[in-house]
Amino acid sequence: MSEYKAPLNDMLFVLRELAGLDQVAKLPGCEDVSDDLVQQILEENGRFSSEVLAPLNQSGDKEGSVLKDGAVVTPRGFKEAYRQFVEGGWNALQFPAEYGGQGLPKLVSTPVMEMWKSANMAFSLCPLLTTGAIEALMLRGTEAQKKTYLPKMVEGTWTGTMNLTESQAGSDLGLIKTRAERQPDGTYRIRGEKIFITWGEQDFTANIVHLVLARTPDAPEGVRGISLFIVPKFLVNADGSAGERNDARCASLEHKLGIHASPTAVMIYGEKGGAIGTLVGEENRGLEYMFIMMNAARFAVGLEGVAIAERAYQRALAYARERIQSRDLAGGAASVPIIRQPDVRRMLMSMKAQTEAMRALAYVVAAAMDAAHRHPDKTERAKQQAFVDLMIPVVKGWSTETGIEVASTGLQVHGGMGFIEETGAAQHLRDARITSIYEGTTGIQANDLIGRKIARDGGAAARALIGMMRGTEADLASTAGEDFTAIRESLGEGITAVAECADWMAAAYTADIKAAHAGAVPFLKLTGLVCGGWQMARAALAAKKRLSSGVADRAFCEAKIISARFYADHVLSQACGLRDTVVNGARGVMALSEEQF
Amino acid sequence: MKILVAVKRVVDYNVKVRVKTDGTGVETANVKMSMNPFDEIALEEALRMKEAGIATEIVAISCGAATCQETLRTALAFGADRAILVESDTELQPLAVAKLLAAIVKKESPGMVILGKQAIDDDCNQTGQMLAALLGWPQGAFASKLARDGDKLAVTREVDGGLETVSLSLPAVVTADLRLNEPRYVTLPNIMKAKKKPLETIKPDALGVDATPRLKTLKVQEPPTRKAGIKVPDAKTLVDKLRNEAKVIS
After folding, report:
1. In this complex, which of B14, B32, B191 lies closest to A41 when CB atoms are compared?
2. Cα dihedral angle (A478, A480, A482, A488), rounded to 10 degrees?
3. Which domains, and CATH codes, for chain B?
4. Which residue did the predictor score with more confidence, A416 or B229?
C-alpha cells in the first residue's frame, strides 16, 4: 500500500527559488513569515496530512457519505479527523487575526492546502467550501453577520457551503429560480431547490452556514437580479449559539464517479413556509460578489489537479519499484522491477515533470496573489493582479486537465492492477475527474481566458507574460550545457506559439467570435503547458545555481534539471501542434451543420 | 514543579539510513532530521503533567550542533515553555550528554527530568541512567505509566518479565518507553507561538563540563547482506545442520 508523503523538498524549493518566499515575507503583514517558520508549518501539516487524512482516503471512497433519516453520516473516521483538524488550528491558517485566524499569506496556505488535497481530496472540500463562504462574508457581510458567523467559521467549528447551482441553472446562473421574499423584520424567506451542494450536510459540526443565491420578487431578469443570502442550518441565538432548526434540509445525496466521501447534497429551502435568511451586501449584486471570490475558488480547484497528480505519482512510483516483471533490456536473466523499463520510466517522468511544473506555476501565482493584495505600491499591485487574472483560468483549466492525465498515466503504470479498485490508483482518476468540471468547466475557463483576459485588454497582459518568459529564455541562452540548450529551444518555440496565438485570438475575437471560441481550449492548454515549461526552465536555472554553489541537495538539483529537460522534449514539444490547432482548427469545428452530426 | 525534558535530534525514522562511503559514520547531510521519537513521548508526558496541574513549567533541552535549534523549536511548538541548547560541534556521547544535563539540572533545579529511554540513532540506552547516577537521584527507566502520589512518583516500568511499579522520591529521572503515551499533533497556533518563546544557547565550557568523547569509533559498515536460505528435506537434516554446520545446538 502506498502512503502519502508530502513532497517537502520540492515544495520548499519552489517556495524559495521560484515563488520568492523571501519577497512575500517583506510584504506588509507578512513579517513573521520566516523561512524556518514556513518549513515547520509544512512539516507538521505534512505529518497531520499523512497520518490522519491520508489513511481515510481509500476507506472514505469505499464507504462514501450516506443519508440516513435526513442526516448525513460521513465515512468512519472522518468526524474524528475533522475534530483533530479544527483542534490543530489548521482551518484558521489564512484568515485575518481579528477573526481568530493566523493571517498567513496565500503562498503559505497553498502548499498546506495541497497536502490536504493530496492526502484526502474529499475531506479537503469541506474546509475549502467554508473558506469560500468566509471570504464572501468578510467581503460583503454586515458587522453583525461577521460577528455572528466568522469566528466560528474561521475556527472551523461551523462550516460553510455555497449554494449556486439549480437543475436548470449550471454554467448560466442567470436562470436560477430560488426566491427570497423580504419580511418586515428585514430578514428574507428563502424558497427553492439547490443541487450539487458540496458538504451541504454533515455530522461534523453544530451548525452549517449556507450561502444561497436567490431572486427577490422585483429583481431584474438574468444575472443582474441575483442576491446572496446567509441561511444557517440552525438559526443563531442571541448568545451566538446554534438555536432552532431553519427550514432547510438535505433531500438526497448524489451518486458520483468520485469524491465519494464528500456529500454532494440536494438542498431544499422553504418547504414549511420559507427558510430564514439575511442578505449579504446589496440586493441584485450576488453574482458580482461570487465573481470576486471566483479567483480564489478556481485557484483552489486548480491546486486539486496538482495535488491528485502528486498522489497518483507517489503511488505509481512505489508500484514501479516493487513490481517485478520481465528482464532488463540491457540483459540479465533475472526479472527486474518495472521501473527499469524505458516506457515505465517515460510514464513516471511525465507524471513527475508535469506535477512539478503545475506546482511551480500555482505557487508563483499564489505569490502574485499576495503581492496583488498586500504590496504597498499601487502600480505593483495592479501589475500583479493583471498577472493573477490572466493565470487563474490557466491554473484552473490546465492543472485540472493535466491532473486527470497524470492520474490516468498513474493507473497505466499499474497495468491490470490499476483497473482494480483495491489498488487505489483508480480512485485518483475518479476523484480528479470532477476538477475540470466544477467551479467552471475547462470550456468556461478557456472562454474566460480569451475573452476577459486576452481580448478585453487587447492582449496587454499576455504580452507582459510573454516578456517575462522571454527573459527566462535569455537566461537559458547564457547558461552552458546541452540540457539548457535543448530547454531554451523548446521554450523559445513554445513562447512564440503562445505569442502568435494570443495575437490571433485578440483579432479573431472581434472578427470571428465562434472561431476564437473553437480554439479556446487548445489555446488554454498551450498557454498552460508553455507557462509550465517556463517555470521548469526557471527551476533548472535555480538548480544549476545551487549546484555550482556546492549545496548539499545535489541529487535533487540534478533531478530537477532532468525533469526540465524531459518536460522540454516531451511536453513543450506539443506547443507547435497546439498552435496549428488554434489558428487552423476552427473550420473543422464549425463547418458541419447540426443535422450532419 | 519544573520538568526538564531532554530531546535529541536524530535521523528521521522514515529515512533509510546509509553509511558514509569512507566508513566514518552514518550519512546525515541532506537527510531529514527529527526529534527522537522516545523523546517526543517524554515531552508529551511532561505536557500532560502540566495540563493536569502537576507541573508548572516545561523546559526542553538539547545537546548538539546549532541545527538542534530546529528540534527545540519543535519542542516549543509541542508546548514546552522554553528551551536550552547546549551547543557543541564535537560528537557528544551518552556520558558527556549526561554530564551536560546534570550541569543544567544544577542550574535549573527541576523536580523531574524525563527523556526517551534511548535514541533511535545509536540505541545506547544510557543517558538517563548515567544522569540519575551523576545526580544521585532515583531513576525509573522504561516507563509505561506515571502517576504522582504526594511527593512520590509511581513509575510503571516495562521489564523483561512484565511490568514493575516503583515508587520514586522526587526529584527523579524518568525515561520513556514506547507505550507511555501517544504524542499529540503539533497545532498551528502553537507553531506560531513557539517563535516567540525563549531559546537560550550555552556552551559546554560555560557549564564546566569536559565533553570530549571517551570512545573512539573505528569503523561503521552496513550489516552483511543476508544469504539466501535453503530448503531441507526433513527434520533430521535440519537438526544435523544446526548441530554440525551452524553449531547452535550440541
Report:
1. B191
2. -10
3. 2-223 (3.40.50.620)
4. A416
Contact B59, B51 (CB under 8 A): no
Asked whether the predicted pLDDT for residue A552 surpasses 80, the reply is no
Handedness of CA A416, A422, A427, A430 (dihedral sign): positive
Q: Residue A487: pLDDT band by 50, 70, 90 thresholds?
A: very high
User: A–B: how many Cβ contacts below 8 A?
Assistant: 51
Pairwise CA distance, residues A130 & A50, whole Å: 22
Per 3-state DSSP, chain B is made up of helix, strand and coil in percentages (nearest 5) of 30, 25, 45
Q: Do B73 and A52 touch (CB under 8 A)?
A: no
**Exposed/middle/buried for residue A57 (C-beta within 10 Å: 0-12, 13-18, 19+):** buried
Please give the pLDDT value at position A295. 86
Contact A131, A125 (CB under 8 A): no
Nearest chain A residue (CA) to B78? A44
pLDDT band at A2 (very low <50, low <70, confident <90, very high): low
**In which residue are the cell numbers 554446520 written?**
B245
Residue of chain B nearest A84, judged by CA positions: B185
| CB of B117 closer than 8 Å to CB of B38 | yes
- B77 touches A at CB < 8 Å: yes
What is the distance in angstroms between the Cα of B184 and the nearest Cα belonging to chain A? Answer: 10
Chain B residues inside the 8 Å CB shell of A36: 70, 73
Nearest-angstrom CA–CA distance, A289 and A11: 32
**Residues of A tagged active-site:** 439
Contact (CB, 8 A) for B45 and B178: no
**Facing residues of B199 across strands?**
B83
Q: How far is CA B180 from CA A560, B6, B43, in A?
A: 43, 16, 11
The complex's ipTM works out to 0.90
